[in-house]
């Protein structure tokens, strides 16, 4: 039996990847230094996995930005607008054109170019974002990158024979989108052109000594139509040609195979990986259908959460599988890549942030690899006395968690029991509320402007928070600085001419972590960084117990901002589904119960904000679509409790108080009626990278409330022109009535600099004014 890992967190324990790449972007280091430093980080990661006892260590799971973008570069799927960059870039010794790669991810705006970035969206139902490949009917594929081969050779030179990781051809095409699709082609029509490139990749991996290749096809865990199923059969029959002795480990995760079981088990591959954390009940069906010589990889360790594995239960699954297929065909690993987990729990030494008792229930990526090594030794009956003691302690910790007083709060449980249906409804329908809100907030009838909430978190602002945490600033000194920044921002927004202002969130480290720090039932980390996109990392809070809000959180800062202007200022909150999705949730109760507990805590904050005179309150739910189960059969259950959680948080207010929400990377077409059931007065959403494509959802559905489609991409450093934003708004008014529309950026401005933010917002306000003027002449 072999242990293997599907992928290691590339961000680095101390976020080395972020620091290296951003130093390159700022011109502080040269490309040669970028290449050398990231290679050093990869080598360190391979060594950590090998030392942990992993038999098959992955390579090509490391990325400077995103693994899907890496694959696009590998097969030469470069959009036309970036082709000119390729010719002018010296990429010798780097494996691929790095500057073109970054331009595709972030866009580029300089004296010679003004190119928008490729679209970005969520990786299935996770908080990781990937770059969306773009395909045209005349698409050609030609390998550009040698990264997958170079990294295999790098590891080999260090004495580590790795298992290269490669996104499979069918999933790669399905992850992308058709562009300029006048011919109405389907991206799977490109499979015939793509497969020879994949054959060449596999052939070259075989030539340089690879034994196993982890070929990832996560779409096999989704609902598939016949066209997609046929594509899988065509693809893997083709890839089976002339491949011996290279072995493919077909890798699925995040769900079970379901009705794709027969298809998957019939594909000509040498191994199959299944996720037994998300779909433990699929094992028996897989064992009945798997080929007589096919290896089976059991995903037993949770690749997406931080709780310890029940080793006794996992050993039972291994032994049951071993009886059917034997040890020689058996692999064990995490359920998915460990990309979604922090790296090393041993780095967490602050007992105030992470209580010792809670820490004993947890395992980060390195500890999960140790769990795998222990499982192998338990099954082989090869434990030392010290390891036996470690296993006993491990299981004792899990038993203690079930009965801990830290986990259970009787007051919260009583409040949950007393919930009824009436609490989920506003006092009046939206049309009545809108009239009262327009009058009370004194907003323009058409195209009112606002932002999503956060403003640039400069190095100076981050230093204030760090100094305050370390005791270098007193609370009085710290609050004086935050108030100064807030007052200055209110002045900036007034000068720009924005209609509905925000306080800027300078006091907040992260939109989820900030609220978790003020709730009971949450714990935190010092170094628990997880990659969200590119160089952006988050430290997800850990929900270990019942959630409660002991006291008001945001009222002080919102009311201070409101005192500095006659215009309305939004109170800014994070919604219950997003707090749940972007935390590591407890695994001992349904997620729906945890969401409702969080919703009650948010409801208390909403009530306090309104009582303090804040008449517009935004409850952000960017993760609402992300939480949707991968299988449609499970959608109704999720959408019922997710909508209820939002309404539970928001319905406490009077009619004249305007409730906003924000959703990014949300494809609404198939859940638009549930978005409407949220009954938010205004919903803002990401639409600029997709060129308002998401508004297609509103063509056939008469959405009743107000909508703010994002008109500029905040994930790119470029400054969009007024004309660009007017063009997007003109697209939008073909779908939505002007009186329904707000004008806003795609998302919060936290990660941008002031030098980009102010001119962009100035152009945005001009765009709104131009639209009002145009429509007044009609």
Would you mind describing this structure in some detail?
The longest helix has 23 residues, at 754-776. It contains 27 helices and 23 strands. With 778 residues, the protein is of the alpha/beta class. It has two domains: 2-403, Alpha-Beta Barrel (TIM Barrel); 410-455 and 498-716 and 737-751, TIM Barrel (Alpha-Beta Barrel), CATH 3.20.20. The model has no long low-confidence stretch (mean pLDDT 94).
Largest sheet: 8 strands, parallel
The CATH topology annotation of the largest domain reads as TIM Barrel
Q: In total, how many beta strands?
A: 23
Number of helices: 27
Q: What is Rg?
A: 26 Å
Widest β-sheet, arrangement of strands: 1-14-13-12-11-10-8-2
Q: How far apart are the first and last residues' alpha carbons, in Å?
A: 73 Å
Helix and strand composition category: alpha/beta
Roughly what is the average pLDDT, rounded to an integer?
94
Helix content: 40-55%
**Beta-strand percent range:** 5-15%
Q: What sort of overall outline do the alpha carbons produce when their principal axes are compared?
A: globular
User: Uncertain runs with pLDDT below 50, 5 residues or more?
Assistant: none
CATH class annotation of the largest domain? Alpha Beta
How many structural domains can be distinguished in the coordinates?
Answer: 2
CATH architecture label of the largest domain? Alpha-Beta Barrel
